[in-house]
């Protein structure tokens, strides 16, 4: 697949790495929000916003939630905002399906950590792109993913296709991924690949690493198939449009 450059090795400890790239025209077909809609586009990686210990605590939240369900295929989703949880070949609403049992699974501290981490990622994105943090709105879907080498059973399991977030989800303006496990130690394959005209740029996940980027076609991307082990991450996305904003999840 052409020349591949590694943007971030799993062994690197990156304070701040940012590559600016020209913005695509995707934003022009949506309402623009001055001082927020991307005019400076690019992609960044940092290992300095979330600690490895925090990433491990967040991974345990994902593991506990996903232990209630899980896909028959290789990709399982847990969305604490909407309650969507993979179960077999379908999704259920975790909060309705399990009711009061949820309080045995999650704690207020879990949700407080989730909120704190989300705020720090939001602040870093705002800082790098030169916008006000208060201009960004958390948007859906924001979710945990667990990927392994099990074959796909439905199209939801086919996570490896190239896609553009702004095209897939019109509300996205800035996308971030917080990795919760380590490439080459916890899983093989599963690298994140930016697909540029001249070459592919890959990000090798490590627990606590945040990868973030503007959501338009300038950042066409895919995830490699996981070959072995289990890869955990959380996708946290932001919109400039307050109408697409969602609140932080609350323990029922």
TrEMBL record:
Entry cofactors: L-ascorbate
Domain Fe2OG dioxygenase stretches: 140-242
A GO term, aspect molecular function: iron ion binding
Keyword check for Cell membrane: no
Keyword hit for Iron: yes
Protein keywords: Dioxygenase, Iron, Metal-binding, Oxidoreductase
Annotated InterPro entries: OGFOD3 (IPR039210), Oxoglu/Fe-dep_dioxygenase_dom (IPR005123), Pro_4_hyd_alph (IPR006620), Pro_4_hyd_alph_FE2OG_OXY (IPR044862)
Pfam families in the record: 2OG-FeII_Oxy_3
PANTHER family, per database record: 2-OXOGLUTARATE AND IRON-DEPENDENT OXYGENASE DOMAIN-CONTAINING PROTEIN 3 (PTHR14650:SF1), PROLYL HYDROXYLASE-RELATED (PTHR14650)
Protein name as it appears in the record: OGFD3 protein
Organism: Drymodes brunneopygia
